[in-house]
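Reading group handout, session on sequence-to-structure problems. Before we discuss, look at one worked example. The prompt was deliberately terse, the way you'd type it at a terminal:

> structure SulP family inorganic anion transporter

The input record follows.
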Amino acid sequence: MSETSPPTGPAVPTAPEFLPKLLTVLREGYGMRDLRADAFAGLTVAIVALPLSMAIAIASGVGPERGLYTTIVGGFLVSLLGGSRFQIGGPAGAFIVLVAACVMATGLEGLLLATFLSGFMLIGIGALRLGTYIKFIPYPVTVGFTAGIAVIIFASQIKDLFGLSLPGGEPAEIVPKLGALWAARDSVSLAALAVATGTVLTILGLKRWRPHWPGLLIAVIAASGLSAALSLPVDTIAARFGDLPRVLPAPALPGLSVDAVWSALPWAVSFTLLGAIESLLSAVVADGMTGRQHRSNAELVAQGVANIGSAVFGGFCVTGTIARTATNVRAGSRGPVSGILHALFVLAFMLVAAPLAGFIPLAALAGVLAIVAWNMAEKEELWALIRATRADAMVVLVTFGLVVFRDLTEGIIIGVALGGAVFIRRMSEAASVDEDAPRRRHPPADSGDAAHAGMVVCHLRGPYFFGAAARLGSVLDRIADRPQAFVVDFADVPFIDSSGARSFEVLARKTARKGGLLYFVRVNDEVRAMLEKHGLAEGHLRYRGNIEAVEAELGLAP
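And the output record:
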């Protein structure tokens, strides 16, 4: 949510809505005590980010240095320009599937171009102030695609966890992948399996008994030291990728030919959609931990700039990372300076200690990502949704299945569509017409009023939109079958859309043809404005403040 209230006039972006949180923090007053706290938090996050960024890059089908570039450049820009005080940007496990598929389809240059284009799309989404709407994605969809991504990440690490040899390469789709892995089961490396198991057990043990220690880094360092000391026959970063560079590459724009842009565009759209969702979810998590509120659109603009910067320096997709952001909050961060320092600490590591990264076993990094996948799965939430209602279970399971067996973007789109359909159905069921016991008033016995033998009052409840209009329109028609004074009470109708207004337009014509009188009472300004836009102005019917005013006008006895 934005810290500024939405404007009531024209949709013109205001400066505070796009003001980086860094400037807000500095304006509030920033001293040495804050800097010390942020330095500690930044170092803590950098220790977590070091092995994770390399592991994510390798799992995504690119060199480990690309993960470092993404963390340094992207993380720096997200914290410098972002709309969240505590957001930590960098490569995220949620992107592994998409990035790996993009690399296979378009190569590294296509990945850099897709990331570059995605940056401009994110800036556009933020500039148009669409950030708030992205957060309306149904909860079952987010749980379903997160759990699906977790399954795919774990499946992608089985090869290195067990040290399997796949001479023909590893298929991208999960079913052929599992088949190929099973066929290669005889090539299991006990050394790789021991390193991976030891890494996982070390991380889990430290999390339980020393939760404040940097478990990921300690486990990776221990695995690297033991593997080198014992000369274990396991693949390392240096063996597969060579030595890591010790400086950032010179900035360079990706190739922008028409064919290249056209090939990269679908991937850019996918990166944009997932990046916007992931970054805003991460910001919401930080808000929940701190009681603060982020600026959605400023955050999206910052994410866009960060993706452009990352691509220019050879990195890939940048987004807000929930685990590192939560670590930043728990470490005592005071604001965006900790995120900036985390990027600088990673840069310092690359400048000083990059050769040491070559000793890291790939099985150890696979163990790190296995833990990441386990934590991502949101198992309790998934099970709770499956047990909640049939509709929620359908949405979460369909999203999960499509993400795992089809495509991530397809899973999100169809999941959102199903979630929207469930919402429409529930809102339609919430809307009702009181037709069982309509209120009737009769004229005095000596009035001789035969044309209007009484008055029927129909009370509507709930929002009257296209989902409800189709169901309730026939009810209104039945009540209005006879010529009479027909009163529709809108007191409990907070909203009406064009479909709902259209149904009342039909009702007004039908009532007029039968010589009846139609009254709308207790209509709020927003609902009345929509009705009048569809020709339901005073003259075609009568607007009154309450039912008693109608009774007085018709001379009806209570």
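Points for discussion. First: The CA atoms of residues 285 and 322 lie 7 Å apart. Second: Residues 1-15, 435-439, 442-453 have pLDDT under 50 and may be disordered.
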